Amino acid sequence: MVNIFSKLFSRRKTILILTSGKKTKLTPFKLSIRDLNIDLTTASFSDIYFDSGGKELMLEGGVNLLDFDVIYFRLVGRSLETAALVADYAKKNRVQIMDKIYANSQIFPITQSKAQEMKALADAGVSIPKTLFGSLLEITKKAQVELGFPFVIKSTSGKKGREVYCPEDSKALKALIAQLLVEEKAGKSFFAQEFVNCTKRIRVLVVGGRIIGSISQLTKWRKRVSGYTPQEDEVKIQKFAPNSEIEKLALAAVSAVGIDIAGVDILIDETSGKNYVMNRNFVIEVNAAPSWKLIKKYCGVNVEYEILKYISR
User: Fold this and answer.
1) How far apart are CA 235 and CA 103, in angstroms?
2) Of the residues 167, 194, 221, which one is the last residue of a structural domain?
3) What is the CATH number of the domain that holds 170?
4) Is residue 188 located within the same domain as residue 235?
5) CA angle, 120 then 121 then 123, to 5°
């Protein structure tokens, strides 16, 4: 009996990490295995194939996805259909999917739509900037009254700060809407948010319910708040007291969206004055496939190792 249990607990966990595009971007994971008791395979979603005769999902080379204990989606990108196929196959065959949003979503994960993401955060009581959804004409008409200028317009599918606009007045708004209406007719959706007076954005990296690093960067529209325009973006390590408001907010956001590995972006309103309400901190994004290059550089943490350690548990 002792031998059976020792073999059971000593068995190496098999992990597959998938990404959209070239799998060479997953090399840091292979270099970070170190003392972990795992067998790691990295691949691209383009390596997945399906044989309708055998009804099995395979990797090129003939490896069945059922041979893995855990499958982690590092970056889905344009491979959403393949990711959905893998998630459905894994779920039906009881292979664990990381993150669970992919296993739990019947159509696509919540983080693929910023509108759904914002709604989930709001429903959970997580602080977000005031947000308006609807057609472009409807949300911009209401935004002028309820949000006032300037306000922010975002695409629901925007990535890494792209497709984010901030008209300063009605003239700029009119020109922007004329441009975006073409995209809306082509199938894109948009939402509007209040403009938060801040000069820096905080990125908190969460792995398995634990914050492993956080940094602050200057915001895109900082000049509107302070007139500050440095030659280069400043990046700083952002430290918080244990159980601080920012830490609570980041963890609450991750929980609301239902994700295990995430980059949470937070804005701290820097408005001052006697009528100002303190602690106006807002979550603006929960990224399921965050970039952590700067976290590694400034916080001195081996992110790939921390993720593998969490997955291997």
Assistant:
1) 35
2) 194
3) 3.30.1490.20
4) no
5) 65
Q: Count CA atoms within 13 Å of residue 189 on its CB side.
A: 11
Q: Does residue 99 share a domain with residue 8?
A: yes
Q: Average pLDDT for consecutive 10-residue bins of the chain (313 residues)?
A: 50 93 94 94 91 76 93 90 86 90 71 82 92 87 92 82 88 96 88 90 95 91 68 76 88 94 93 55 93 94 97 89
HSE-CB of 230 using CA atoms within 13 angstroms: 11
Total count of domains within the chain: 3
**Prior bond of 99 cis (ω within 30°):** yes
- Alpha-carbon gap, residue 23 to 64, rounded angstroms: 18
Any idea what the Cα angle at residue 65 is, between residues 208 and 45, rounded to 5°? 75
Q: What is the pTM of this model?
A: 0.82
Q: Are residues 167 and 205 in the same domain?
A: no
Which residues neighbour 150 within 8 Å (Cβ) at sequence distance 6 or greater?
166, 167, 168, 195, 221, 224
State the CATH number of the domain containing residue 303. 3.30.470.20
CA distance 310 to 9: 16
